[in-house]
Each structure stands twice: as C-alpha cells, then as structure tokens.
Design a protein that fits this description.
Layout: E1 20-23, H1 25-29, H2 39-51, E2 60-61, H3 74-80, E3 91-92, H4 96-104, E4 109-115, H5 118-125, H6 129-145, E5 149-155, E6 159-160, E7 164-165, H7 168-181, E8 185-190, H8 197-209, E9 217-221, H9 228-237, E10 242-245, H10 265-274, H11 283-297, H12 304-310
Parallel strand pairs: 1-10, 2-3, 3-4, 4-5, 5-8, 8-9, 9-10
Antiparallel strand pairs: 6-7
Helix pairs in contact: 2-11, 6-7, 7-8, 8-9, 11-12
Length: about 300
C-alpha cells in the first residue's frame, strides 16, 4: 500500500478499463434493517455517495409499505432528492401500481425483481415464475414506452435455500424471458452467496450463446462464503462491466434468511484500484461515508477495507 491509502497497481490481461458500480446500499442495503432508518439519514447517505463519485445509485423501492416498511418513505425520499447532473437514481418497482407511484414521483429509471426459481418466486412475489412474468410485462412496457431504462434483477442464479443447486440452463431461460419483456439490463444475483468463479464463467458463457452478452449483464454477489470478490473478477474477465455493490457491505434479503451482506463497495474498489480499473469513485470518501453510516446504525461496518482504513 502506498501513502495515499490505495493499493499498488498491477494490471491483469483481459479486463475492462472502466467498471460502473451500481451502488445498492440505500435500497438493497437498508431494506433489511430491523429498525427504520430516518429519512434525513437516507438522504444524507445518498448525498455522501454522490459526493464520493457514484454515478449510479439505487435509492429506494416502491413496494407496498407492508412488505418492506423500511422503505415506506419512497415518495418523500424521491421528492427531496438533490438530483445531480450525470448521476442516475433508479428505483425498484414490484408491479404496475409501483410503476404508477414511481412515475408520479418523477422517477426516470426503474428495476424489477424476478427469480430464477419457482420457490423463491412464490415466497418473494407470491406468484409462479410464469405469473410473475405476466405481472412484469405491463410494468416493463409502460416504462419503456416512456423512455425509461429497465433493469431486470434475477435472483437465485446459483443456489436456492429451498431448491438447492439451480441448473444454469434454467437461469438462462429466465434471463431470456426478461430480455424478451424489454429489460435493458439483467443483473445476475447470487442471492445466498454460494457461487464460485467457475460457475460464474459457465453461466456467462451460456448467456452469451443465448444472445445475452456481457454488455447487457451486471453481477450482484453476496459474500456468504467469502467468494464475492473472486466471482466479480471472473465476471470482469468474461467482459462484464457493471457490478452491484453496497457501501459498507450493508444488506441481505428479507425473503432469504441465509443471505448475508452484499459485496462491500469499498472491498470492490480496493480490488479494482489495484488492477488499474477506473470507477470514478473516491475510496477515502466512501470509507468515510460507510463509517458514518455504521455509526447511524449502531454497529461496525463488515467491510474489511472500511475496518482497515477507518481504524
């Protein structure tokens, strides 16, 4: 490590020159908190993330408050956002009603949340996979008709706590269905953190063969078994250039109890900086932000890099 708190740079072959980080802390990170985080804290969190250089920040979800009470203030939050030029602020919407709420709030980019397995679809959406697609179809069409980008989250891509190992062709079919609906990007979720790099490369290869190349794919890894960074590197070597991460490693999944925290953005930044990959995000500022948020939540950040640099 050099004096500026960054790793020495040693590049590897076949890696992108720049990676876009989709910062999911304000939505995916905070939705799993046992206590409601005050609106003012959420707004300051988002401001700090933008100050650190993030250009893609998923800020909230327009799901019904009874399902995710931690994000019941979605309308108020979006109304009070200080939207900076060049920064994108997508939100998650679950259905047509959620889309209407988001559009009324002036949202310009959305995401939907689908499943690669039947059991999780029923537990998370109270629908079969086929019924979920029927629910999403008017949401995607309505958003695209208004010129909005639509990300399709695909959860349980590598393992499911109820079904076990998920066959990769099953994941490819689910991803193909989302692209067929009109999703402009697919985020592959290792929701319970069981994937290893070989599985990641195999799935990306099958997706490419099905016509879903790395240009339209993002990856979303959880670190349950300590594999998130290794899996991310495997994805980057396969051409992926969008990586989801959560400041300070916040988050999990309220409908999958075995899902631990997301890949910490700081841990990802340390790896990318050491590989000479640009992100536009200032590591020192982000560490400061996550240390601040940890104080708001009353517990230390699980991020190894935050622990190392923030003392």
């Amino acid at each position: 490590m050099v004096a500026d708190g960054l790793p020495d740079v040693v590049e590897l072959d076949a890696l992108p020159a720049r990676v876009t980080i989709c910062e999911v802390g304000p939505r995916d990170g905070l939705q799993n908190e046992s206590a409601i985080v005050p609106l003012e804290v959420k707004l300051e969190f988002i401001e700090r993330l933008a100050d650190a250089g993030h250009q893609l920040i998923e800020v909230t979800s327009f799901v019904h408050p009874s399902w995710v009470p931690q994000l019941a203030d979605a309308e108020q939050l979006v109304a009070r956002l200080d939207r900076r030029p060049g920064v994108r602020y997508p939100v998650l919407v679950p259905n047509a009603r959620g889309l209407d709420r988001a559009l009324d709030a002036g949202v310009t980019e959305i995401a939907i949340f689908a499943s690669a397995t039947e059991t999780f679809a029923r537990r998370n959406l109270n629908r079969t996979m086929a019924e979920a697609l029927q629910m999403f179809a008017p949401v995607v069409a309505g958003a695209r008709d208004r010129g909005l980008r639509v990300r399709g989250y695909l959860s349980m891509c590598f393992g499911d706590p109820w079904e076990g190992r998920v066959p990769l062709p099953q994941v490819v079919r689910a991803a193909t269905d989302l692209v067929g609906l009109g999703c402009t990007e697919i985020s592959l979720g290792d929701t319970i953190g069981v994937a290893t790099p070989g599985q990641v490369r195999a799935l990306l290869r099958l997706l490419a063969e099905a016509g879903i190349g790395p240009d339209t794919v993002a990856v979303h890894f959880h670190d349950t078994y300590g594999q998130a960074l290794a899996n991310t590197l495997a994805a980057l070597q396969a051409g992926v250039r969008i990586v989801d991460a959560s400041a300070g490693g916040l988050g999990g999944c309220p409908y999958a109890e075995s899902a631990t925290g997301n890949l910490a953005t700081e841990d990802l930044l340390w790896q990318l900086a050491g590989l000479g990959i640009e992100t536009g995000v200032d590591l020192a500022k982000l560490v400061e932000t996550s240390a601040w948020m940890a104080r708001q939540l009353g517990r230390p950040s699980p991020s190894r890099v935050v622990q190392a640099l923030a003392g």
